[in-house]
Amino acid sequence: MTVGGSAPPSQFLRSAFWAILAAVSFAFMMTSVRYMDGKFDAFQIVLVRALVGILLVGPLVSRSGIGALRTNRLPMHFVRTLFALFAMATLYYALAYIPVAQAIALTFLIPLFTTIAAGLVLRESVGIHRWGATLVGFAGAMVIIRPGVIEIELPVMLVVLSSALYAGAWSSVKILTRTDSPAVTVFWLNVLMVPLTAIPSAFLWVTPDWSDALPLMAMALSGWSAHFCQARAFEHSDASAVMPFDFLRLPLGALFGYVLLDEFIDVWTWTGAVIIFVAGYYITRREALRSAKPL
């Protein structure tokens, strides 16, 4: 990486490529969950995703050996897993009732909640500019939700809660990656999710039929792909450099929802999403500039 945190053109193009694939994967994952229309409990969906994730980590184990997955921070991995588990569960519950693009728009709140966690929990220095951008972002959420104008639906609030929980998971990963590799964090996330989701799934289990195989596998593979591609996108470029490509999740989600589910998105959702995204980008950019300053 070059001075100032900017990547050479060739590295940036690779990062942009992976960021676009991450956006496509994320939109496709959410559309797959929405397509199943609440047939399966959210915990069962997360269980399937975790099992597929473990299978995909298999090549890493065979190549590097089980020793490469050792960790001394299992309690922190458990905390991260709880955040991620309930973030996924609340999002998947909500997707049974609201359009894909509306849910995606509200997930842009994650960087804003992450800023709150950084300032209040991790005790990081958060300046007035980032706090101001956070307030602007939440104003964008109010444009989408419009309290007092339309009835606030529970699924919408579940997506907001999911974004806050995802922020907790992101903050936990930030702590874990000081000592553990991304591969280790992904491995333990999936391993710990299996028993945590298997218990409720045993009581809520719905046996899939052959017509469910494709959306379930599409959900699991695209969910894994979204995380993998995002990690590759950040490998050679700052998050602020590739974050604009993340906004592609919204038009892609709207397109998939329209073609596959006959969903239409109103202008309030688009307007609020732009406000939230711009605020999140500003926060990410400020964080990158702060990190680039010499100590």
Describe this protein's structure.
The chain is an all-alpha fold and 295 residues long. It has one domain (14-292). The protein is built from twelve helices and no strands. It has helices at 9-35, 42-64, 74-95, 100-107, 110-120, 128-145, 154-176, 182-204, 210-233, 239-246, 249-261, 267-292. Helix 6 (128-145) runs antiparallel to helix 12 (267-292). It starts with 8 loop residues before the first helix and ends with a helix. 45% of the residues are buried.
Task: Throw out a few tags for this protein.
295 residues; mainly alpha; 12 helices; globular; disordered N terminus
List the helices and strands and how they pair.
Layout: H1 9-35, H2 42-64, H3 74-95, H4 100-107, H5 110-120, H6 128-145, H7 154-176, H8 182-204, H9 210-233, H10 239-246, H11 249-261, H12 267-292
Briefly, what is this?
With 295 residues, this protein is mostly helical. The chain has helices at residues 9-35, 42-64, 74-95, 100-107, 110-120, 128-145, 154-176, 182-204, 210-233, 239-246, 249-261, 267-292.
Reported for the largest beta sheet, the result is: none
What does the average pLDDT come to?
Answer: 82
Q: Enumerate how many helices there are, as a single number.
A: 12
Terminus-to-terminus distance: 18 Å
Question: Structural class, from secondary structure content?
Answer: mainly alpha
Strand portion, in percent?
A: under 5%
